[in-house]
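# step 3/5: fold
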Amino acid sequence: MYAHLDDKKALPVQAGQTVKQGQVIGYMGNTGFSVGYHLHFEVRGKGASYGYGNDTDPVGYLEWYIEQSKIGELREVIEAMKYVMNHSDRDYTKTAIDNLVKKGLLNNPDDWKKSVDDGTVYQRLPMLTAVVLDRVSDNMD
């Protein structure tokens, strides 16, 4: 789901509609417990309040997507993320960040490496997943 959509504008797409890269699918808003206009993607489980508080690790969905669309290059990224989530190997994590930069999938490696050092990289992994997936999809034909 996209959280904090502008609730004053009609959505330009309908549920189940096929969309194309670059097509507007929603508008940034400031709804809920937002601290400013923005928009972000979340994967949530079913439950009360539209699954609020049931955020789900998106790695399983990405693995399914890879199998369906045959994006083998992203498999390495997901495996690295799974490793990072289960281990506290900072050197490995920094090497994974360097590899993403070399592939053109990630910018500002110093910021990401700082988050490895201070331990906040784990909270930032959903954002990293979204960034890498966005960049990979931009390079698909």
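# step 4/5: annotate
The chain has five helices and two strands.
# step 5/5: archive (pending)
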